[in-house]
Amino acid sequence: MGGDNAPAIEVAGAVAAAREYGIPITLVGDTERLRQELDKHDVRGLDISLHHASEVVGMHDAASDAVRRKKDSSIRVAFELVKSGEADVVVSAGNSGATMAAGMFVLKRLKGIDRPAIAQIFPTLRGKTLVLDVGGNVDCKPIHLVQFAIMGEVYARHVIGVDQPRIGLLSNGEEDSKGNELTRETNSILKNISFEYVGYVEGRDIFNGMVDVVVCDGFVGNVVLKLSEGLADAVGKMLKYEIKRSFLSKLGYLFVHKAFKNFKKKVDYAEYGGAPLLGINGVAMICHGGSNVKAIKNAIHFAHEYARKGVNQRLAEKLETEFVAYMQQRDAVKEAVAG
Amino acid sequence: MGGDNAPAIEVAGAVAAAREYGIPITLVGDTERLRQELDKHDVRGLDISLHHASEVVGMHDAASDAVRRKKDSSIRVAFELVKSGEADVVVSAGNSGATMAAGMFVLKRLKGIDRPAIAQIFPTLRGKTLVLDVGGNVDCKPIHLVQFAIMGEVYARHVIGVDQPRIGLLSNGEEDSKGNELTRETNSILKNISFEYVGYVEGRDIFNGMVDVVVCDGFVGNVVLKLSEGLADAVGKMLKYEIKRSFLSKLGYLFVHKAFKNFKKKVDYAEYGGAPLLGINGVAMICHGGSNVKAIKNAIHFAHEYARKGVNQRLAEKLETEFVAYMQQRDAVKEAVAG
């Protein structure tokens, strides 16, 4: 109920996912409004049910306050359904801070994780790069970024299927002398953990495929995410503008428009649908507030695949065991330094 | 002497600027190395002189320490030439933090400015957006961002020629409840200053031309800058890859390649050449460490135009008077609130 165009887009996306992939879906929110939207679609034979929630956390609400106060908010009720076993995954295009807060509040965090992170997959020249956090955690301490790095590494290995994921810390330069207070301390801790940590990476490295995981705080990650979408969009428009300036190139466009379409598909966030929320004891998929029907459909599809394949359970186990092992290394290092 | 490919690229760029625009240039650095490079070019009739400096601040050096320690570094000597009146402008592709530090150290800051900022112009769908700081100031206090906002406003009005520049503060969402500790306090101060402050803007707004000036700290600004370059490059490559996959679209490319070229020219940082350093008592143009010859040539050209038109002097006057006026407003507001 909290998305920019809720619940029309969400309902349409759910109907599309139910029809295309046969996924059973429970719509959580104001059942009267949801029913109105459902009536616009042909839902015969689809396994779509409704579950009432009287409140909504809006985009302007302070996330964790609102989640605590609004006991009957759609996002909180949705997580309750997962907790009680009536649902396997939460998919939301509402306030992402609230989704994170509700996930923590209802499902609790995995052992050793202070703050869950939203992990967004970016298409690159060769493969994919996972960037986290792109959401809620705007003011981070070094230990939070270290946790993001470990979660990203485990996710890249066990879900994306990278053998030895390379991890980079986003900074304003490659040299150790660069960075701000937060990244400098994080950098020195990450060097002591036994995974493929390559050190600082720069903004450009997100798209050249140099690393598999890029770690940053949620403020920077969110700027990165929205800048990328805005720029890919602007680049497409600028190119089209240039092409339409001459008759010959307009003619040429007839031949290349399929390439444009393929390209757009590659960078279109709607293809990925949503970003998984890592670090809570369950699966949640976070979508853009302004998601279109296709994005919602794909997010539900990916979320369903995760749940079906037990990805999240495996991830939770791995996160807990490997996280503890990593952190013990860190303690050992600290003790060695102190001693 | 401090650029990634110094001094070969710098010398070639200087020769090109001297030849194309008749600009008199002093090359500052190891005169033996500079002479070697100059000998590769035909410099007859060009007004190029050499000035010796025995030291170099490298990319790995901690900027302000190195500038203080290395009295005879090329960047410091170059600013000394401006101070003594032997030169009008410094152009550097070296360590940008060092350029900033040397500029402050030798030429001093303008009245009321605690920290100078590097202001980068980004091409957008309609016009240009100035983003500052994109450099040295990685850990900022709210007052620094306020100063960046005022400098950006004055620059947009008096140099870019925007009547009433619209200012935005880069954040992770438009709502006042978003942002981190730094932006939330900055946001509340900026609302009390009598310019066109639109509030928070997001990453995507840099390229849609919604505002004329985007304010952020140097860490975030640097990520934005490098991400944009990386993404524009990746987008071009991805599109070409898609086009070359079929014969028909390869054929079509013959007709659209000029559009691609025009587009590339629009987003190519080399066309802008450098980013002015605002807030010091003089003109300096900061180029990428990895600048090509064209970027150096254009940076020298723009810097020369600034000096020739007295832009910087006017800017300095405006900055000082308007800055003080703005800050007085702020004091008045604070007193009103306190009283």
Automatic annotation (TrEMBL), chains A, B:
Pathway: Lipid metabolism; phospholipid metabolism. Belongs to the PlsX family. It is found in: Cytoplasm. PANTHER family: FATTY ACID/PHOSPHOLIPID SYNTHESIS PROTEIN PLSX, PHOSPHATE ACYLTRANSFERASE. InterPro entries: FA_synthesis, Phospholipid_synth_PlsX-like. Its main location: cytoplasm. It comes from the Bacteria. Its EC number is 2.3.1.274. This is Phosphate acyltransferase. It catalyses: a fatty acyl-[ACP] + phosphate = an acyl phosphate + holo-[ACP]. Catalyzes the reversible formation of acyl-phosphate (acyl-PO(4)) from acyl-[acyl-carrier-protein] (acyl-ACP). This enzyme utilizes acyl-ACP as fatty acyl donor, but not acyl-CoA.
